[in-house]
Design brief:
binds pyridoxal-5'-phosphate, about 240 residues, TIM Barrel, single chain, alpha/beta
Length: about 240
């Protein structure tokens, strides 16, 4: 493992190679650097190396680091509690983790209050793992329709999913394929506030397979910054 800059260059190269191999444009796959537990210094190093988008999974970390990090697009990728939406509504570009209408309605209210339209993804838990947030594949269509009809200040930009852990990423190729099929189905849905662009799937250990199966946004932490030490920030 090299330094942050080398790691980013390596990932961009792998991303480009895989995309080309499957006949896709490498620029259609956005690399989001996952910066949870990382210092502002490390994050700024990544931004200097070309990172344009970063992902955090805790509201507190976004608040703590926001003013110390260079201008960049912030993504909320972790479970979001309704009562914390107000702290990030003016800071993030995309919320990946919308998994209830209740949460969407709060995002809608807070977005309206500051006069913006918020881009969101619906988090799908296609394997229905109890340990993960997200809605079932069966509920996805109804959820998208409910958000579109109830939340005028939200634009639905696609789906996000976290694959089950697999020693061998080949074992979850079918999972990614299933989420991609769901994505295609709802991307075709015509509505003025439904504008699908992001299929957010793939992390450090499985982004290659995810890109092969159609991911357009990969969330990569460890492969950029190294192993996380959860005791370094906020315990
Ligand atoms: C931590 C995290 C990632 C990144 O995981 P790595 O294995 O470090 O690449 C991606 N997505 C979500 C939702 C995360 O919480």
């Amino acid at each position: 493992m090299g330094n942050i800059k080398e790691n980013i260059a390596d990932i961009n190269e792998q991303k480009a190679n895989i995309a080309k191999k499957v006949g896709r444009n490498p620029e259609d796959v956005l690399l989001v650097a996952v910066t949870k537990t990382r210092t502002a210094e490390a994050i700024n190093e990544a931004i200097d190396a070309g990172i344009t988008d970063i992902g955090e999974n805790k509201v507190q970390e976004i608040q703590d680091k926001y003013d110390m990090v260079k201008p960049v697009h912030w993504h909320m990728i972790g479970h979001l509690q309704t009562n914390k939406v107000k702290y990030i509504i003016d800071k993030v570009s995309l919320i990946h983790s919308v998994d209830s209408l209740h949460l969407a309605e709060e995002i809608d209210r807070r977005a309206e209050a500051i006069g913006r339209t918020m881009d969101i993804l619906i988090q799908v838990n296609a394997a229905m793992e109890e340990s993960k947030f997200g809605i079932s594949t069966e509920e996805t269509g109804r959820m998208i329709e409910a958000v579109l009809s109830n939340c005028k200040n939200i634009r639905v930009r696609g789906l996000m999913s976290i694959a089950p852990y697999a020693e061998d990423p080949e074992d979850i190729r079918g999972y990614f394929r299933e989420v991609k099929e769901l994505y295609e189905k709802y991307a075709a849905f015509k509505h003025e506030r439904s504008d699908f662009k992001y299929l957010s799937m793939g992390m450090s250990n499985d982004f290659e397979v995810a890109i092969e199966e159609g991911s357009s946004l990969i969330r990569v932490g460890t492969a950029i910054f190294g192993e996380r030490n959860y005791h370094s920030i906020n315990g």
